[in-house]
Amino acid sequence: MQATRTNLSDTKVKLTIVADQAELDNAKQQTLRALAKDMRLPGFRAGKAPLNLVEKSANPNVLHQEFLDRVMNAVYGAALDAKNLRPVDQPQVTIKKFVPFSELEIEAEVDVIGEMKLADYKKIKLAKDAVKVTAKDVDEVIEQLRSREAERKDVERGAKDGDQVVIDFVGTDAKTKEPVSGADGKDYPLTLGSNTFIPGFEPELIGLKAGDTKTFDVTFPKDYGVAALQNRKLTFQVDVKQVVELVKPALDGEFAAKIGPFKDVDELKADVRKQLESEKQYQADREYDETLLNTVADQSTIAMPDSLIDRELDRMEADERQNLAYRGQTWQEHLEAEGLTEEAHRAQNRDQAERRVKAGLVLANISEVEGIDVTNDELSLRISILKGQYQDKAMQAELDKPENRREIASRILTEKTLEVLKGYAADPKTKAAPKAKA
Q: What is the DSSP letter of 305?
């Protein structure tokens, strides 16, 4: 096989490939053997007829097409290996010359991962912040537990901090008076003083009774999660349907025993602290991994094809649509709430998609440089553990599917590579990293 590479851009190449006679002969033999399995010829069992008879008896069009597909796949794969290319999509193939079994020349254009300059990752150091759980953190959880167990009593007086109000509300733009998508609700339970709603909203309800209506303006914070609402003033009309006094139980041994197997409040608080430490440590570990990987990625350079970024954007959007469906919101409602078109929404997420793709490629390259792989024993053990988490036989069977095994193996490889990176980041004595493959 002769292959010539022409760079059409940093991330697109054209391969001109000429098959040699040995490759043509091998593809012909494989094609004839494959056809022979389903061919019945007089005097021979299926699959046992001589290949010269199979060739004479086969439909020429079928034979030539299957031979062509087989030999093109073979020489294209060999050319990728020879030129050390990493394609990210199917190639566009043009047949320049084809004489069955004796000549084949093709041109293949394909998007590839371009040149990569890996950061000197062994020199990157990153300290871990200590996880701290304060007495205030514990007390806040205890108060949430007391609120959950509180006795609820409807009252006719005006609402005060600590009460729960059940409200209907509608938000409109303060200037245009047009309704704002997502700024409305019915039978919404809100505990006053919880600071779980828009800043400035809860204090407006202090003193209102069941049956009262109030209209007031609230300006959304500049860092509000929905970009279309940042610094935006909305006029809310709120109807109070119910005021509920929450009578919290006393913080004593009886309360602790009701929450769990605790003898007293001290045991309850110790358990809460332990759980908070575990949760905070898990979150801190995830943030550390992400920060470390992004630091390495930021110091690396990679030529990435747009098709790879677009594919990641498709995955991100599919996940977002699924999450919206769970919350009962349509895609169009979401876009209107954000004040974005589909194109603008996609453009807004492009930097994040590019960052994800780059981080993944950097991690894969480090695993190659470090010689990290996943053994069959490691994969089998992880799948066994995952199967133990499911009682459903069908779900257990899903884990044995090739695509799921590949996904699990990829996850293990990521974990092992991150552990190596974290070892370098924490060790002040590590030397510079070897050069990455281009």
A: -
Q: Which amino acid is at 353?
A: A
Question: Which distant-in-sequence residues (6+ apart) come within 8 Å of 111 by Cβ?
Answer: 11, 12, 87, 88, 89, 305, 306, 307, 308
* Rounded CA separation 96/263 (Å): 83
Q: Residue 254 domain-assigned? A: no
Within-domain flag for 132 = no
Q: Is the pLDDT of residue 48 over 80?
A: no
Q: What is the CA radius of gyration of the chain?
A: 32
Q: Report, as an integer, the average pLDDT of 138-149.
A: 92
> Counting beta carbons within 10 angstroms of the beta carbon of residue 299, is it exposed (0 to 12), middle (13 to 18) or buried (19 or more)?
middle
* pLDDT at residue 348 tops 80: yes
pLDDT of residue 339: 78
- Interval 169-212: pLDDT, tens: 999 999 999 888 778 899 999 999 988 889 999 999 999 999 99
Token pair belonging to 377 = 């024993």
- 138 domain residue, yes or no: no
Number of domains in the chain: 3
**Alpha carbon separation from 91 to 15, 109, 120, 187 (Å, rounded):** 10, 5, 33, 56
Residue 429 class from Cβ within 10 Å (0-12 exposed, 13-18 middle, 19+ buried)?
exposed
Given a contact cutoff of 8 angstroms between Cβ atoms, the answer to whether 68 and 61 are in contact is no
Whole-model pTM: value is 0.75
Block residue for tokens 């899903």: 398
In the block, tokens 């036989």 appear at 393
Residue 303 CA, chain-centre distance (Å), reads: 22
Q: Indicate the residue type of 249.
A: P
What's the average model confidence in pLDDT over 44-63? 83
Name the burial class of residue 229, with classes exposed (0-12), middle (13-18) and buried (19+) by CB atoms within 10 angstroms of its CB: buried
Q: Write the burial class of residue 176 (CB in 10 Å: 0-12 exposed, 13-18 middle, 19+ buried).
A: exposed
Residues 238-281: tens digit of each pLDDT: 999 999 999 999 999 999 999 999 999 999 999 999 999 999 99
> Domain containing 181: what range?
151-247
Confidence grade of residue 344 (pLDDT, cut at 50, 70, 90): very high
Q: Is residue 104 part of a domain?
A: yes
> For the purposes of burial, counting CB atoms within 10 Å of the CB of 109, is it exposed (0-12), middle (13-18) or buried (19 or more)?
middle
Q: How many CB atoms lie within 10 A of CB 63?
A: 19
Scan for tokens 């919350």, then name that residue.
327
